[in-house]
């Protein structure tokens, strides 16, 4: 423990100038500063001790954020500006997270919390470097790739977002999460461009392709640094997940006809994770973009593929059953008529599906979603409740 105590004292001593300024300017009282020091000392001993957990590092960083938030509010109330330690609190939080991921490099949750905080405080340069470190450490973490690609897309850099998604998909070929988010990102982009064109606004030109797949953020003044920031390289087997032909197809930018989302779905069908339930997720995600003009074409492409390879699977049957209601509000005038069509299809597909129990379970799930709506017409509620009772009775038998 002697080593732990020495290390804790070292990190605590670094905050002495900040604490003295707080006391001199009456931001915190002596008792409050004493309490802060004691709390920091407890946290330091806890995280530096053998057997510390990522949760303890996270708790430490979050507590420091609460202290920094309180300091900021008191400075505003006291009208204090230009403090010498104005950024010391933020730097301390970043340091804690950095030490934490160094101690627990396999903790995906701690990496994401660290990256979220950097995005919150607009530390773009540090975010870029840390994201690259995280992806090198956890190349098969789908959520990390999504986080990186969404950052590019939110800044309007779809070329880099696509590069990031494609690189990630080569590593994450055993799970559908990243592939779904890639397709969702493309749908959001199509929707955004279509709305801009409808308003007569100019569409931003795509950024040149980054051949090195480096994490370069818009607005960063450090893009020409010599630091090694390349993303992890896939193996030869992983590189074959998206071959050269598929890469060219995904990097093309057809005139708003939805070819890229459909290409993502088609390539995902060749992956080990693909099954009818994944196709169902793709379909439901696509139809959620109900205002996009090419959405019917894209969603029909998915349904046709499922009809071809899994015609009587519960997932395929469920999509055919629900199709008339998708994108229609439960309070719209056409909803009752469409519900009648759905119930007719339900009876038909229950007879032909390969797994009646699974289809009944899926049907009960979407019926429950409508029953939870407040203000639903009482007649419709009665019909749905009776249908649910019949399905429950069939499942019991």
TrEMBL record:
GO terms for biological process: maturation of SSU-rRNA from tricistronic rRNA transcript (SSU-rRNA, 5.8S rRNA, LSU-rRNA). SMART domains: HAT. SUPFAM superfamilies: TPR-like. Gene3D superfamilies: Tetratricopeptide repeat domain. GO terms for cellular component: Pwp2p-containing subcomplex of 90S preribosome; small-subunit processome. The keyword rRNA processing applies. InterPro entries: HAT, TPR-like_helical_dom_sf, Utp6, UTP6_N. It is found in: Nucleus, Nucleolus. Its main location: nucleus. Keywords: Nucleus, Repeat, rRNA processing. GO terms for molecular function: snoRNA binding. Residues 12-87 form the U3 small nucleolar RNA-associated protein 6 N-terminal domain. It holds the Pfam family U3_assoc_6. Belongs to the UTP6 family. This is U3 small nucleolar RNA-associated protein 6 N-terminal domain-containing protein. It comes from Hypocrea atroviridis (strain ATCC 20476 / IMI 206040) (Trichoderma atroviride).
């Amino acid at each position: 423990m002697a080593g732990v105590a020495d290390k804790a004292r070292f990190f605590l001593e670094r905050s002495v100038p900040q604490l003295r300024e707080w006391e001199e300017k009456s931001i915190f009282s002596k008792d409050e500063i004493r309490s802060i020091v004691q709390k920091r000392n407890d946290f330091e001993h806890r995280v530096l001790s053998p057997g510390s957990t990522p949760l303890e590092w996270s708790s430490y960083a979050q507590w420091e954020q609460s202290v920094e938030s309180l300091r900021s509010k008191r400075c505003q109330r006291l009208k204090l500006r230009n403090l010498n330690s104005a950024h010391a609190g933020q730097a301390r939080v970043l340091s804690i997270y950095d030490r934490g991921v160094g101690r627990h490099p396999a903790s995906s949750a701690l990496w994401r919390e660290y990256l979220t905080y950097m995005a919150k405080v607009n530390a773009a340069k540090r975010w870029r470097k840390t994201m690259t470190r995280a992806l090198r450490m956890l190349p098969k973490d789908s959520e990390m790739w999504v986080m990186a690609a969404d950052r590019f897309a939110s800044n309007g850099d779809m070329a880099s977002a696509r590069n990031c998604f494609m690189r990630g998909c080569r590593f994450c070929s055993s799970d559908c999460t990243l592939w779904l988010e890639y397709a969702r990102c493309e749908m959001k982009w199509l929707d955004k461009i279509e709305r801009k064109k409808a308003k007569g606004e100019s569409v931003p030109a795509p950024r040149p392709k980054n051949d090195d797949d480096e994490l370069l953020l818009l607005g960063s003044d450090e893009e020409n640094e010599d630091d090694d920031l390349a993303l992890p390289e896939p193996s030869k087997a992983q590189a074959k997940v998206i071959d050269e032909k598929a890469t060219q197809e995904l990097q093309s930018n057809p005139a708003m006809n939805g070819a890229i989302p459909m290409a993502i779905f088609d390539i995902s069908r060749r992956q080990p994770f693909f099954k009818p339930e994944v196709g169902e997720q793709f379909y439901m995600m696509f139809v959620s973009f109900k205002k996009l003009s090419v959405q019917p074409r894209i969603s029909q492409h998915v349904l046709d593929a499922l009809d071809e390879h899994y015609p009587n699977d519960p997932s395929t049957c469920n999509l055919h059953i629900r199709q008339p209601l998708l994108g229609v509000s439960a309070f719209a005038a056409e909803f009752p008529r469409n519900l009648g069509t759905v119930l007719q299809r339900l009876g038909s597909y229950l007879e032909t599906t390969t797994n009646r129990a699974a289809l009944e379970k899926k049907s009960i799930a979407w019926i429950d979603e409508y029953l939870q709506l407040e203000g639903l017409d009482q007649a419709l509620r009665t019909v749905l409740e009776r249908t649910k009772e019949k399905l429950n009775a069939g499942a019991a038998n």
